Amino acid sequence: MKERVETNKRYHGIGVSPGIAIGKAFLFSTEKLEVPAFCYLDKAKLNYEVERFTDAVSTSKAQLQKIREKMLEDSKGRGREHVRIIDAHIMMMEDDMLVSDTISHIESEGVNAEWALKTVLQSIKEFFDEIEDEYLRERGSDIEYIGDRILSNLMGRKRERMPQIDEDVIIIARDLTPTDTAQIPGSKIRGFLTDLGGRTSHTAVFARAIEIPAIVGLDDITRVVSNGDMLIVDGSSGAVVINPAPEVLEEYRKIKEEFSSYEHDLHHYTSLPAVTVDGYTMKLMGNIEFVEEVPGLMEHGAEGVGLYRTEYLYLNRRDLPSEDEHFQAYKKVAEMVAPHDTIVRTFDIGGDKLLSQMENLDEANPALGLRAIRFCLKKTDIFKTQLRGILRASVFGKVKVMFPMISGIKELRMAKAILDDARMELRKEGKAYDEDIEIGIMIEVPSAALIADLLAKEVDFFSIGTNDLLQYCLAIDRGNDHVDYLYDPLHPAILRIIKSVVRAARYAGIEVGLCGEIAGEPQYTKVLIALGLDQLSMNALSVLRVKKEVRSLNYGEILKLTEENLAEPDAADVGKLIN
Ligand code: PEP
Ligand code: MG
User: Fold this and answer.
1) How far away, in angstroms, is 367 Cα from ligand 2 center?
2) Of 136, 467, 514, 542, which is best to mutate to test ligand 1, by the most ligand atoms within 8 angstroms of its C-beta?
3) What is the DSSP code (8-state) at residue 77?
4) Residues 306 and 543 sit within 8 Å (Cβ to Cβ)
5) Ligand 1: distance of its center to the CA of 302 in Å?
6) pLDDT at 510 (0 to 100)
7) 41-67 exposure pattern, b = at least 16 Cβ within 10 A, e = fewer
8) Which residues are bridge partners to 275 per DSSP?
9) CA-to-CA distance for 268 and 265, rounded, in angstroms?
10) Residue-by-residue DSSP string for 246-265
11) What is the separation of C-alpha 529 from the centre of its chain, rounded to a whole number of angstroms?
């Protein structure tokens, strides 16, 4: 039994979808199945266990197919967001790593299907847990979801856990699966709180897609909250208040009203240009991972895709994506985004972030290891397959190609040489591609920033990746909480480095954008305009917010303000002066 939580108890997590939600707690079942273990089974029993297991896999696949159909029917399109994730789950159920290994385990260890599955899942899970990249690590939870479903079917438990909800509630869960979220009756849900998850977890992506406040990474909120507790969720700051006092409730109701009218007001900006009061235009583009994100992005008035992260194509599978899969994915996005640009970033995984398709590299410092372009230049066949797919898609819209993690000229030239090879092959095969496809690089390694003048002579555009640039420049691991306090986009070193990259781009006459998280945070818009960027690329939700901010600014005044302010030695002072 839980003790009743005292009034006004506050918790803090990672706010992943902004806004205020007020409502009663609804604990989404977090029941973990107790898995029975039987060993020393005879041959006949083992055959029966294998049969039970394959039946449970088939049933699970059929259930997912049904959920998938329901998602596609969803008229609001919020389900469609996750169809590819469900597809990946169905594929995982056909995967050798899971299915054959479990059958082998039943047969070699003489154990029951549940126990064999649990053991195999555990070892796959451990593999994912060691992955440093947050996004990829979270894909390990996909394994848990599908394992859980097969186990439930093996044990005759009903997996669909979402009951009828008749009043406004805040869903509390350890984590939410895409299949869970697909069944949530959206009209009654006011917010999400989860123990697990980060900015790229399913709950986060889903909450942002349906624009409901959410906080993840709360550790043990499922333990401290009881059904029916009154909750305030502040998805912007990551704060949760349990059983708030009347005056706190009143205060948040006011904030909520202000926020709602702000959000409502934002929709006026959809068709308006991102232009300052004195006529300076800023191009706002979107960051995407899935094709399903494109309609929302365009609805919010983005002028193209400034960063298409292609890692998703490589996830949740044992084989590598074929050239045709690459081609189809990029073609679809390019067609939807045309006549605007689609900047396809070649894949950015490697080091210990490799998936099952590739051998595991034992690296002590994976963030400084064989990742992104470095990996591609070692595995040129994998790289060229992707480049051929991008090139072929380039005749279906305005596609540009972008290389991540470039640290020097030699690397850039090698990457361009492979792109040339791919072009030559396609030409010989008589396959169409855009001869003038633009080539750009991400500036996210300090060495690249320092020689931006040299790199600018050999590419058509730059995109500054501040997520990594801050990590490498300030020597703070992106995933390490202990040094999170040092994360400061207004650090003078960051402002100087961005400024020098922009200057180099200007001098060479090429475009320079910025696609790290700060592009979508309105408190940095003024600084980013002052630094002279041509384009900012951000998640769909941020486009209207940043557009509103741009339209409230006066470019002439920003220019007057900045020269001396950007030279301030302390980031806090820069922030104060600028804002
Ligand atoms: C970045 O580093 O700023 C960036 C946009 O790339 P990613 O977050 O995918 O590493
Ligand atoms: Mg990066």
Assistant:
1) 10
2) 467
3) S
4) no
5) 19
6) 98
7) beeeebeebbebbeebbebbbebbeeb
8) 281
9) 6
10) HHHHHHHHHHHHHHHHHHHH
11) 25
pLDDT in tens, 328-371: 999 999 999 999 999 999 998 765 445 545 555 667 787 888 88
Rounded to whole angstroms, the Cα distance separating 180 from 160 reads 8
Helix (H, G, I), strand (E, B) or coil at 258: helix
Half-sphere exposure of 217 (CA within 13 A, CB side): 18
Q: What's the number of CA atoms in the CB half-sphere (13 Å) around residue 244?
A: 21
- Residue 160 in this model has a pLDDT that exceeds 60: no
Neighbouring C-beta atoms of residue 319, cutoff 10 Å: 10
- How far the first Cα of the chain sits from its last, in Å, is 49
Q: CB-side exposure of 407: number of CA atoms within 13 Å?
A: 14
As a whole number of angstroms, the distance between CA 545 and CA 549 comes to: 6
Largest CA distance in the chain: 83
How many Cα atoms sit within 13 Å of 430 on the Cβ side?
A: 0
State the pLDDT at residue 341.
98
Cα dist from 435 to 378, 379, 416, 431, 523, whole Å: 26, 25, 14, 11, 40
Question: Model confidence over 88-100: pLDDT tens digits?
Answer: 788 888 777 788 8
**CA–CA distance, 112 with 36 (Å, rounded to integer):** 8
The token pair at 122 is 């555990």
Structure tokens given for 456? 């600018």
User: Ligand 1 atom closest to Cα of 464?
Assistant: 3
For residue 347, the CA-to-ligand 2 centroid distance in Å is 11
Contact 330, 388 (CB under 8 A): no
> Which residue is listed with tokens 């074929």?
322
Atom nearest to 309 CA in ligand 1: 9
